[in-house]
């Protein structure tokens, strides 16, 4: 009880510090001449606009809720299925990564052409939710204490019993960690469609109508309302995750990583891995072509794999298209790498701060949540006002979209360290820093690489969003110019190329994950 009261007091103290600093910075107009307004002005504007919000909020929450629920069910089901059938996971790995890596901006006009009503918003929310929840479920189901499975089998249990009584129960904390990321993702997906779709109601629509008025307080009000919704979602799933973590059977002193995670590809020969890789690639192409046929779109707008290849290599303007694409790639890819590294580093540092000094680390958490949940169309202009239309602004935007999912993954690993090992260390007089160094950090090494694998596609997406909305460079600007010129071939080409690079980067990180895992965790 006293520990809970102390934690509550620390959180309240951190929140008070954030509020005071924010108010002072806003009142003094220390950031870009008032683009960072004081909280009093923001909440005052929220109150003045209170009649505008109910219908906008209801439309956004309805679509985000449906998309989140459907996407979570699909993702959890696929995660469990992929954990049971590793070859199936290998075949659909490209599809899973594609759903997460495809730039959402590319999908907005296609979805609006193919579907009516709220379906585009719901579909984009499903896509935003799928990958983090699926990956978290897959890791949680695979990473179990093998001794618990042996007990079930020795007692006459089957693999189904192991799944029911061990794997699913052990996976619940990881699943809820994925849901914590998926909730804000669904909200952002819905608002992005609202922002670009010309719909009547929604927070994104309200945001779009407010951008040209030069009213930072209203923009921040919309962003903070979205942050509050994301915070409620985060808190609810955090509570459930902590509950199941406490009630689970904890591992004892064992610090070994699960072999199923580290060696998931080792049972295949080089030829088998090549065949599975080709099968995964072909599955993406088949689903791509099949989806376009089902949507029955005009071939002028909808470009399949063959049409993209023709546009880039055999078309009349293929050489010019390749030159523009290569030039844009040279601007985008380095910034994506820089933003990814800074996002991972900041997430790791904040997770350590929260573990060692909760009151210090928790003071940064509201800004972390804002960076994830505030709509990028609103956040990006504010970043540009502070940093200018520069490379630094692009890196900051990329940092904002990679940081939060990485932090959630790393913090979950730190909090899931085996309690038995911690108890043994503390019984010998180990201090908090020693427990962190010898127990929690080794446990978190794998999660750092998992976070990198999860954040890599988001890094590319973040750079493209900044380029598309603000800086006018790279793939994002090429996409923007192509939309204005109705150059659908280039739009689909940019999407395909960005996904290809995201998949390659993810595979490289996965290879490093296995190698480092064998060296340090086994």
List keywords for this structure.
522 residues, mainly alpha, MetI-like fold, 2 domains, 22 helices
Describe the structure.
The relative contact order is 0.11. Residues 251-263 have low confidence and may be disordered. This protein has 522 residues and is mostly helical. It folds into two domains: 36-251, MetI-like fold, CATH 1.10.3720.10; 303-522, Orthogonal Bundle (MetI-like fold). α16 (358-373) packs across α18 and α20 runs antiparallel to α22. It is built from 22 helices and no strands. The chain has helices at residues 2-27, 39-48, 53-84, 86-91, 93-101, 104-114, 119-142, 146-154, 159-197, 203-211, 216-247, 259-262, 270-295, 305-314, 318-356, 358-373, 376-387, 391-415, 419-427, 432-471, 474-484, 488-520. The longest helix has 40 residues, at 432-471.
């Amino acid at each position: 009880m006293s520990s809970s009261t102390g934690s509550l007091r620390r959180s309240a103290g951190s929140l008070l510090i954030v509020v005071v600093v924010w108010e002072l910075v806003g009142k003094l107009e220390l950031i870009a001449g008032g683009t960072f307004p004081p909280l009093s002005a923001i909440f005052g504007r929220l109150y003045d606009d209170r009649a505008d919000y109910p219908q906008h909020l209801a439309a956004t929450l309805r679509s985000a809720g449906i998309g989140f629920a459907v996407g979570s069910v699909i993702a959890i089901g696929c995660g469990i299925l992929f954990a049971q059938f590793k070859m199936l996971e290998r075949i659909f790995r490209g599809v899973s990564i594609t759903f997460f890596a495809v730039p959402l901006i590319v999908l907005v006009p296609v979805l609006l052409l193919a579907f009516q009503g709220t379906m585009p918003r719901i579909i984009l929310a499903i896509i935003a939710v799928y990958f983090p929840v699926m990956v978290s479920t897959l890791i949680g189901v695979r990473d179990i204490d093998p001794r618990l499975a042996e007990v079930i089998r020795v007692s006459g249990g089957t693999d189904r019993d192991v799944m029911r009584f061990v794997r699913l129960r052990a996976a619940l904390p990881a699943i809820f960690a994925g849901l914590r990321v998926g909730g804000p993702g669904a909200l952002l997906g819905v608002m992005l469609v609202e922002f670009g779709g010309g719909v009547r109601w929604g927070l994104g629509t309200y945001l779009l109508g407010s951008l040209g008025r030069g009213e930072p307080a209203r923009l921040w009000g919309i962003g903070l309302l979205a942050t509050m919704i994301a915070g409620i979602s985060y808190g609810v799933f955090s509570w459930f995750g902590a509950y199941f973590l406490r009630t689970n059977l904890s591992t004892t002193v064992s610090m070994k990583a699960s072999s199923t995670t580290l060696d998931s590809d080792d049972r295949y020969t080089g030829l088998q891995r090549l065949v599975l890789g080709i099968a995964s690639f072909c599955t993406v192409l088949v689903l791509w072509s099949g989806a376009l046929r089902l949507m029955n779109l005009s071939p002028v707008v909808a470009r399949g794999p063959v049409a993209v290849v023709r546009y880039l290599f055999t078309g009349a303007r293929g050489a010019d298209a390749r030159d523009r694409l290569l030039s844009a790639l040279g601007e985008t890819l380095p910034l994506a790498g820089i933003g990814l590294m800074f996002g991972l580093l900041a997430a790791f540092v904040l997770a350590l701060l929260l573990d060692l000094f909760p009151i210090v680390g928790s003071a940064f958490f509201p800004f972390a949540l804002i960076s994830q949940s505030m709509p990028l169309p609103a956040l990006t202009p504010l970043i540009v006002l502070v940093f200018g239309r520069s490379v630094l602004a692009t890196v900051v935007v990329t940092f904002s979209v990679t940081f939060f999912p990485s932090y959630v993954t790393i913090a979950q690993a730190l909090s899931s360290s085996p309690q038995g090992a911690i108890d043994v260390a503390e019984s010998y007089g180990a201090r908090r820093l020693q427990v962190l160094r010898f127990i929690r950090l080794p446990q978190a090494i794998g999660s750092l690489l998992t976070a990198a694998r999860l954040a890599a596609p988001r890094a590319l997406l973040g750079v493209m969003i900044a380029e598309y909305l603000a800086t006018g460079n790279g793939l994002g600007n090429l996409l923007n110019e192509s939309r204005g010129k109705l150059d659908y071939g280039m739009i689909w080409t940019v999407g395909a190329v960005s996904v290809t690079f995201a998949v390659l980067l993810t595979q490289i990180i996965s290879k490093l994950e296995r190698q480092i895992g064998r060296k340090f965790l086994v």
